Amino acid sequence: MIFLKKPWKPLVLSLLLALAAGALGALLGGGMQSYEGMERPPLSPPGWVFPVVWTLLYLMMGLAAWRVWTLHGVREARASALRLYALQLAVNALWPGLFFGLKLYWAAAVWLALLLALAVCTAARFRRMDDAAGLLLAPYALWCAFALYLNLGAAALN
To answer: pLDDT by residue (tens digit) across 88-115?
Structure first.
């Protein structure tokens, strides 16, 4: 029930911020039409999977950030963790522009490796402050690792 006692305005803002990063990425990427026409590595899911998975991940990211944002008594640690979160969110939003928009597959892979490192660091930092917040970011870090595999495969095949 502690979940229900936390402030709701920061929750809505946190969820909207995460979803806005995803929307910005979608705008910069220009859609997934090029994905369907490219050579892809094994285990590549159909294009419709990505918006579904990313939407769920952004919601989980927003929820994790909200949990950290509303912690009491850890002002400096909270601010530092949320700056790291904001950085990885910005890196996340720019990746689709590199991959889909500019078709810079190898550069996008390097960028995605950076994103993966930031996602892991953010999850670890969040977990030290709030177990649930860190665990909420674990699927995101795993998906970033899978996305890096897909990105590298697409770079090698195209």
So the answer is: 999 999 999 999 999 999 999 999 999 9
Neighbours of 144 (CB within 10 A): 24
Is the entire prediction scored with pTM above 0.85? yes
- Residues 85, 68: contact at Cβ < 8 Å? yes
> CA 17, CA 24: separation in Å to the nearest integer?
10
Over the chain, what HEC string results? CHHHHCCHHHHHHHHHHHHHHHHHHHHHHCCCHHHHHCCCCCCCCCCCHHHHHHHHHHHHHHHHHHHHHCCCCCHHHHHHHHHHHHHHHHHHHHHHHHHHHCCCHHHHHHHHHHHHHHHHHHHHHHHHHCHHHHHHHHHHHHHHHHHHHHHHHHHHHC
- Long-range contacts of range 116-121, CB-CB < 8 Å, 24 or more positions apart? 116/141, 116/144, 116/145, 116/148, 118/84, 118/87, 118/88, 118/91, 119/88, 119/144, 121/84, 121/88
Q: What is the pLDDT of residues 34-90, one digit of tens each?
A: 888 899 999 999 999 999 999 999 999 999 999 999 998 889 999 999 999 999 999
